[in-house]
Design goal:
alpha+beta; 127 residues; five-stranded antiparallel β-sheet
């Protein structure tokens, strides 16, 4: 299967969250029911190498999606990845705690784009 060709202009939704009061993540996903592209930027207690690693993770997620790998399969591999900082999540209406940045990203993708509402701490009808 050939890689999916994306249009030159794409809309994205960006979610900004703070994890454990130490790291800010900007997670941008193209605004579609079935995402094709992910961007991740981090701020906080971090160095250039970590920033680059998150950029590579986002590129690999995007490439895998465009090559036909199911978003749910990708996001499930990120879920429950434990790393620091972990803890309370500020800025997301559905996710209030995570085991780390990758866990948050997986949880966000599963809830928002794969209908996995059982992973939300606050369900849509409660907000």
């Amino acid at each position: 299967m050939p890689r999916k060709k994306l249009p030159d202009r794409r809309d994205h939704i960006t979610q900004r969250v703070r994890i454990g009061g130490k790291r800010t993540i900007y997670l941008s996903v193209d605004n579609e029911e079935s995402p094709n592209e992910v961007f991740i930027r981090i701020r906080g207690e971090t160095g250039g190498e970590k920033v680059a690693c998150y950029d590579v993770i986002a590129r690999l997620i995007s490439l895998a999606i465009q090559e036909g790998v199911a978003l749910e399969a990708i996001a499930e591999r990120l879920l429950a990845t434990r790393m620091n900082p972990a803890g309370p999540v500020d800025g997301d209406e559905h996710i209030k705690f995570c085991d780390g940045s990758l866990d948050y990203i997986g949880r966000h993708l599963l809830i928002r784009y794969c209908g996995r509402t059982e992973l939300a701490h606050v369900r849509r009808e409660e907000t």
